[in-house]
Amino acid sequence: MDDLTDRQEEVLRFVLSFRDQNGRTPSGPEIADHFGYSDPSSAYQHLRLIAKKDYLNIHQPGKRGPLRIVPTDKAETAATQEWPVFGAIPAGPVTDVPADDTVSVRSIQDLLPMIQPDDYFLTVSGDSMKEAGLEEGMTLLMRPTDDPSGDVSPGDVCAVWVDGDGGTLKRVYFENGHVRLVPENDAYDVRVEPAERVRIQGVLVAALSVIPFRNGG
């Protein structure tokens, strides 16, 4: 949207957001109200300037009919944030970053294609699973389960709630009416709990580690 002014970009993003939330594009008075304009003519002026730059199509049936605002493909493409992925880079000899066959990241699904609607995230606290690569501060994608005996395989890493003790992240094994909770750190002991005291809150699907090297611009 480099060819739009800051206010024109704000107006366009509002039009798209309003459309996504309400199933229709806003009217001139609704745009004016959102931006605090006392007169809708200011909103209409922005819309016409945006339309001249091919982000909107504006139709008005008759001289007094309401404006019909239709975002163009250019607007839809420009409003979709994406980040290019330029392939892999070795942490050894210097080499060129490939410029061809790149993909882009637009949403969480692009990073985690296995994600499902009911999945949720947790943050690792502590070091009891560090030998499994799950370090303090990492973000975990978890999948809830209604049937642990069917959905949890032996050795799956799970978020577990133990009555009286609280939550923990461990490898899980079901054994003869008990649940064995196995850490991945020799400093911690294996625990065996009666199955009725244990609730499986989620199964680990993926782990993400973000290490900031620079904040801001």
Number of domain units: 2
Overall shape: elongated
What percent of the residues sit in helical stretches (DSSP H or I)?
10-25%
CATH domain class name of the largest domain? Mainly Beta
Please count the beta strands (DSSP E, at least 2 residues each).
11
Which regions contain 5 or more consecutive residues with pLDDT less than 50? none
What name does CATH use for the topology of the largest domain?
A: Umud Fragment, subunit A
Chain-wise SSE layout:
Layout: H1 6-22, H2 28-35, H3 40-52, E1 56-59, E2 68-71, H4 73-79, E3 83-85, E4 103-105, H5 108-111, E5 120-123, E6 139-143, H6 148-151, E7 156-162, E8 166-175, E9 178-182, E10 191-194, E11 198-208
Antiparallel strand pairs: 1-2, 3-4, 5-6, 6-11, 7-8, 7-11, 8-9, 9-10
Helix pairs in contact: 1-3, 2-3
